[in-house]
Amino acid sequence: MTREYYLRSLISDNGSLKDFATKIGMPYSTLLSILKNVGGAACDNVFKICQGLGISADSLSMLDKIPSNVILLELTPAEQQHIKKYRKLSPAGKKEVDHYLDFRLSSEAPRVEKDSEISSL
């Protein structure tokens, strides 16, 4: 995945490119230009975009070095701790955790659907 594609997809997930440019105080034409070639952009502008998306410029710079089949996630410290603990479990322990997560998700899914039905009334 290219840095340009990654940024464009993150911005698009949160609305239009034009709205994002306004949000970070950058001319729309400058944003479009940067999304064609991040490497040629002024550092200040790249920092504005990263700050507006809540990502680090370091993570963006590493993107070209990461294989395309790797999924990048921004994890909270608590999520990182859960993953570290999960990796220490035996295969049987991991299976139990996986089953419990599936159970919790299935029991919460109907509630989430009902909440969204109520809010749409």
CATH domain fold name of the largest domain = 434 Repressor (Amino-terminal Domain)
CATH architecture of the largest domain: Orthogonal Bundle
DSSP helical segment count: 7
Structurally, how many domains make up the residues?
A: 2
Number of DSSP-assigned strands:
0
CATH 4th-level superfamily of the largest domain = lambda repressor-like DNA-binding domains
- Termini, distance in Å? 41 Å
Instruction: State the helical fraction.
Output: 55-70%
What is the average per-residue confidence, as pLDDT, rounded to a whole number? 81
Structural class by SSE content = mainly alpha
Radius of gyration, taken over Cα atoms and rounded to an integer in Å? 19 Å
The dominant shape is elongated
Q: What is the CATH class designation of the largest domain?
A: Mainly Alpha
Poorly predicted runs are none
H-E order: HHHHHHH
Produce a short descriptive summary:
By secondary structure, the chain is mainly α. It has helices at residues 3-13, 17-24, 28-34, 43-53, 57-61, 77-88, 91-119. The protein folds into 2 domains: 3-65, Orthogonal Bundle (434 Repressor (Amino-terminal Domain)); 77-119.
Describe this structure in words.
The chain has helices at residues 3-13, 17-24, 28-34, 43-53, 57-61, 77-88, 91-119. The chain is an all-alpha fold. The chain folds into two domains: 3-65, lambda repressor-like DNA-binding domains (434 Repressor (Amino-terminal Domain)), CATH 1.10.260; 77-119. The radius of gyration is 19 Å and the shape is elongated.
